[in-house]
């Protein structure tokens, strides 16, 4: 996919979780989480890897300015639980959590992107996910019913790929 061509060999300087609050959702897998990368080459640009909200299938890249309102990682679990239990009174809007200095993401921050794989079904030319690979970790972005989810080797290990196995054989295609 051409939209991700600029990712090759980019060094991740900062990392964000971009979350749509899971208002009333029952499971962690239902939390709409995307990944925001800030590259050393473009320090004022947040590259959000997500799922296209039009077709709810295709990997999508959104370029944004660095957010002004950032929540601390220490509040992530509490806020997600509050939203899920309908106990949060805040305005429903995208929430940004900077995870640059969080141990679960140490193998991503200050690392270069080594390769990119498109994840899809064997008999379908349209990929449904993307895997960004680093020397010692990865970010896997895949669609969920209401948006997107991500996982890394140490974060959000919900095995969302297994939900696609009923649709057919899953394959990955290295694009660089």
Strand order of the largest sheet: 4-3-2-1-5
Radius of gyration: 16 Å
The largest sheet, given as strand count, sense and whether it forms a barrel, is:
5 strands, antiparallel
The H/E string reads: EEEEHEEEEEE
Low-confidence stretches: none
Which structural class do you get from the secondary structure elements?
A: mainly beta
Number of strands: 10
Distance between the first and last residues' Cα: 10 Å
Helix content: under 10%
Shape: globular
Number of helices: 1
Question: β content, as a range?
Answer: 35-45%
> What is the overall pLDDT average?
94
Give structural attributes.
single chain; about 180 residues; mainly beta; five-stranded antiparallel sheet; 1 helix; about 5% helix; about 40% strand
Short structural summary:
This protein is mainly beta.
3D structure, described in words:
This protein has 176 residues and is mostly beta strands. Helix content is 5%, strand content 38%. It is built from 1 helix and 10 strands; from the N terminus they run E-E-E-E-H-E-E-E-E-E-E. The protein has one helix at residues 76-84, and strands at 12-20, 32-39, 42-51, 59-65, 95-98, 115-121, 129-133, 138-144, 147-151, 170-174. The strands form 2 sheets. Strands 4-3-2-1-5 form a 5-stranded antiparallel sheet, with no helix packed on it. The protein has a 5-stranded antiparallel sheet with strand order 9-8-7-6-10, with no helix packed on it. A hairpin with a 2-residue loop joins strand 8 (138-144) and strand 9 (147-151). It starts with 11 loop residues before the first strand and ends with a strand. 27% of the residues are buried. The model has no long low-confidence stretch (mean pLDDT 94).
């Amino acid at each position: 996919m051409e939209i991700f061509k600029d990712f090759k060999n980019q060094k991740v300087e900062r990392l964000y979780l971009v979350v749509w609050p899971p208002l009333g959702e029952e499971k962690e897998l239902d939390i709409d989480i995307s990944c925001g990368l800030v590259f050393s080459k473009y320090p004022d640009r947040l590259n959000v890897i997500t799922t296209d909200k039009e077709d709810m299938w295709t990997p999508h890249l959104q370029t944004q300015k660095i957010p002004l309102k950032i929540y601390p990682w220490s509040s992530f679990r509490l806020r997600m639980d509050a939203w899920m239990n309908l106990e949060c009174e805040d305005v429903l809007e995208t929430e940004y959590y900077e995870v640059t200095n969080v141990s679960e993401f140490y193998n991503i921050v200050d690392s270069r992107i080594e390769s990119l794989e498109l994840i899809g079904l064997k008999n379908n030319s349209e990929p449904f996910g993307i895997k960004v690979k680093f020397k010692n970790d990865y970010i896997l972005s895949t669609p969920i019913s209401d948006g997107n989810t991500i996982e890394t080797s140490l974060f959000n290990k919900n095995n969302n790929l297994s939900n696609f196995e009923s649709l057919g054989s899953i394959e990955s295609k290295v694009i660089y």
